[in-house]
Amino acid sequence: MKPLDRAPVFGSPANARRRTVKFTFDGRLYEGLEGDTLAAALLANGVDIVGRSFKLHRPRGIMGSHVEEPNGLLQLESGQFDEPNVRATMTPLYPDLRAASQNSWPNARHDVLGVMDRFAKVLPASFYYKSMMWPNWHFYERFVRPIAGLGKAPTLPDAQKYQKRNVHCDVLIVGGGPAGLVAALVAGNAGLRVILTDDREQFGGTLLGERFKLDGVPAPHWVENSVAELKQMPNVQLMPRTTVSGYYENNVLAAAERVSNHLGPGGQNGRLRERLWRIRTSAVILATGSIERPLVFANNDRPGIMLASAVRMYVNRFGVVPGSRVVVATNNDDAYRTAFDLHSVGLKQLTIVDTRGRVSDDLLRELQVRGIKHYAGYGISDIKGKRKVTAVKIARHLGDGTLSTEEITVDCDLVAMSSGWTPTIHLYSQAGGTLQYKEGLACLVPVACSQSVRVVGAANGAFALVNCLEEGIQAAEATVSQLGVAPATKLTVPRTHGAERETLRIEPFWYTQTSRSDKQWLDFQYDVKVSDVELAMRENFVSVEHVKRYTTGGMSVDQGKSSNFNILAVMAELSGQPIVKVGTTRFRPPYQPVTIGTFAGSTVGQMYAPWQTLHAQVSHAASNAHFGDYGWRRPEYYPRGNEDVVAATRREVFAVRSGVGMFDGSPLGKIEVKGPDAATFLNRVYVNNLANLKPGFARYAVLTNENGVMIDDGVVVRLADDHYLVHATSGAVSRVFLMLEEYLQCEWPDLRVFVNNVTTQWANVTVSGPKSRDVVQRIESDIDFSAESFPHMHFRTGTFAGVPARILRASFTGEVTYEISVLSRYSKSLWDLIAREGESFGIAPYGIEALEVMRTEKGYLHVGADTDGNSNPHDIGWAKIIEKKADDFIGRRSMQRPVDKGSDRLELVGLESVDPKAPLPVGGHFVDDLNPKMPTASKGYVTSACISPMLNKAIGLGILRNGASRMGEVVNIYAKGKLTTARVVPTAHFDPKGERLNG
């Protein structure tokens, strides 16, 4: 049927005209009509194959009309607007839309890999786990990877804009169908703050695809009137094109709004594409509707086989009739409306095949009046036609899932199937709700939930329109009462016409047990068949969660929409148990895809995290600094001329070791702890004793969590009896500060202590090297920098260059070092002043790379790099320090466990390569054998390594099993298929006695 030659749209004026819209699919130009979905436009143009199945590459056509669609997954647009796995049924048509089929080459109609279907018998569920074992997975990987997956991930940066918003309301109503609309009218009229969401382009739900009348007007008109009334209410927020994707604790829900997707790349012009809403609400009403289940019979995946309700939607809403000779296959009354609606638009070649032996007299009379053929007590035994349905074979239903061997062939080009309805309860399940099986309707319905949520309409098993409307009104009235609001004028249930037969009467007929074909499909996208479930259960996978993973049924894009209930039913039949005993799988958000861009919002690039720059940034740039992202944007090295990172780093290390260097240490964490109980507090937090630290002195300290695992270290300074300055690593200062706050507020609120993170208030220039004292003494100060007056691990306050300063003698290089801190506004001036005054001594700036080399030479610990999630202070040789401390501290009890003091722990050691020129691989694992057979046991790994400029050999640090007792041993290090040998040595490689610190 051509796009402009369509059936009349129900509820529209007879002369209503819609503009034509041009689009392309698989490189061919087509025309659709304004208001179409891409799926409707493809069906109107006679496109029967839109994609290929995942594993066997079988041809697949449009089956559904909305979120339940498993086959019509397309690649939309290209370049910076490229988007894979877009449902054609949820994509509104816009001018110049470009779509392409997926999982096929060169296209969906002519797919070279369609040959896979011939090998279906040797490719059952989980065949790859059983067959791709020898010689190893990597042998097959090179063949599998290029053809695996559905759509192709975009290769260019996304040009579209996204946003995140927070919103609060009294009641969130999810679903804008009949139940949701009346619930919103009741709650809105009562004055509640209401948000009504729906994932379709328009409100109305299934009413848009039915030939019903409400209060005497066509259903679409009733929807328009209701939406217009809601728009007049200032307390009601309407959000169409919005998918509520997750339901979390305390009635917090996430919703993805498609703001301008329907305009396409050409219509966005820099406008916002999608928005993520974080909704906090007092109550929730779920009017999420239901999904029609497919029947299970041989070759039920052929193009031309659709859900009965989807056929009605395309006919009544879009004027698209997907076939001319139609068979309606069903086990319930609801599907009969599809045949009647098709007859109403002029189709005469109609046949209904019902597995039930008898139906109501009313249905029989109408079938007779319309001249529709009827086969009661029959089921489909097979499909004729390989690329598209050409006929069906039907046979008498004998009961217990068996069919007679005598078959009747009915010619057709469209099969509209229905096996009943499955309530859409994914959000209810995410909220923690429980379900029960409803025998008469053959579906699972909600029972109870601890959160403030009500489920109404078809989502609650109320499939009749009048019942949907009643439940929506009642739920809203109950919510109004729950929130203590005076009720408004009572809303009466709209009068319905044409929906009288909507009540289902289902006799379950899950699948054909005597089918001559094993190709009875349950999950259409992942090629999961009845035989796959049978195989899983034969191999003793009887849990529904195990069967799901063994077969991949209900995974990927389907997420159980069209497949889960049929899989449960087949499992129940095979096990002889009722469905309720088989159990159900849990739904995880998101139930339908949400773009990563929506979750990310604007937090990409430089907006990913707060970008912190040094106050002396300009001065560093003037020295040709090469910057890296360390939370702060910091200089890694300062290349001169054609130096690379290695050459620049070596030069900077030599400059510090032989003369003097300067380093911007401003990001170093600085936390002030002040109060009468400051000493008591810190002594409870840190591993070593800080209560006996004297004012003006500094001490290295280690911090552990409740499990005794090291989480940070740093130098702690006592400024006064009641005042400490705690230095934390730059990457951990925020969480250390929050940890201190938490303990003060939650564990020891009686302690008189205040903590304050002052990291950004103080800038720091560190001067390090044998000539560092010569440099700082050239600058005006009231501080005595002589070795006798200002020894290592001491602290002084005073003025420096005319401004207040805090100066600490501590070192991460192993050289005489002064860490000079001034107020941040003086940072650049201080940096430039020290650079000028040190010029005559050959002062050179050094970056993170040189600092890491020097601290590795000295064997200084870097928590997080030289430790793992199990490392405790015993592993770095602190056993005696712990024993000496009488007071308790966080993690002490955990460190008394035998396993925490065992002799086989991973302990910090130094390493030097047996071949001085062979670098030690960071991350390489210690193994016992020279020729290890993988997998093999790891005895630890290398944590830090470098080629030492001072020692001219490869050195490093590592955590090695029982390392402290293995000094002098040669160990094997395995990394990337290669072995390196190293000798275990003390951690301090350079100046092991620390004599240079006291120069």
Summarize the structure.
The chain is α+β, with helices and mostly antiparallel strands and 999 residues long. Strands 8, 9, 12, 13, 14, 15 and 28 form a 7-stranded mixed beta sheet that branches. Strands 42-43-44-41-35-45 form a 6-stranded mixed beta sheet. The chain has a 6-stranded antiparallel beta sheet with strand order 47-50-51-46-49-48, with helices on one face.
Structure description:
- It contains 24 helices and 51 strands.
- It is of the alpha+beta class and 999 residues long.
- Among the domains are: 20-147, Ubiquitin-like (UB roll) (Roll), CATH 3.10.20; 161-290 and 423-502, FAD/NAD(P)-binding domain, CATH 3.50.50; 297-418, FAD/NAD(P)-binding domain (3-Layer(bba) Sandwich), CATH 3.50.50; 511-591, Arc Repressor Mutant, subunit A (Orthogonal Bundle); 902-999, Elongation Factor Tu (Ef-tu), domain 3, CATH 2.40.30.
- The strands form 13 sheets. Strands 8, 9, 12, 13, 14, 15 and 28 form a seven-stranded mixed sheet that branches. A six-stranded mixed sheet has the order 42-43-44-41-35-45. A six-stranded antiparallel sheet has the order 47-50-51-46-49-48, with helices on one face.
- A hairpin with a 2-residue loop joins strand 42 (795-800) and strand 43 (803-808).
- The termini are far apart.
